[in-house]
Amino acid sequence: MGAGRSGREYPSSARNRRVAHGTRTLYRDGCRCQPCRLAFARDRNARRQRDALPAPIDAVRAVLRISPAELRAQGVALYLEELRLAGVGLRRISLLTSISRRRLSLLRSGRLTRVTGRTSARIYTARVTFARGALVSARRMRRQLRTLRTMGYTRSDIIRRVGASVLRRRRRARVKSVLKVAQWYDDVTRT
Ligand SMILES: [Zn+2]
Q: What are the residues whose beta carbon lies below 5 Å from ligand 1 (ion)?
């Protein structure tokens, strides 16, 4: 910044003598005193930063320019993708919502860019059940298995009824196994 001119003296004009220094205006008037040089540099840096970054309001406008139907479609696409990662496929969602698989597929991929509120509500309110192969938390299943053990069921009983995989100390288990244990637990605790 002003370092290149170090050593040189810039006498203040007569007009500037009586006003407080350290402003950009005085610098532009020709004052090169330390406070005015600093004020000018600070302002210039601030202006450069402002120009380099997109104003936050522009980002907001970019979002608001999207219509509600488009915004809904984007939300639905994310939701469908999350369900896919959780093991819930389009066939199942299609069965639950009576929306065609083709349409759901277009929504999930983002190729269908608009969706009505009625359709998105149908998708969000569908009581999604997990695909049997999906992994879910094993906590409840493990607790149920412990109870079954205290009731007298042995490891080989468990292996016979549910499979050896549930004895592994994993945090997640297949929906299929969780459902089997839950069914078994319900049966023996109900009586
Ligand atoms: Zn000055």
A: 21, 26, 31, 33, 36
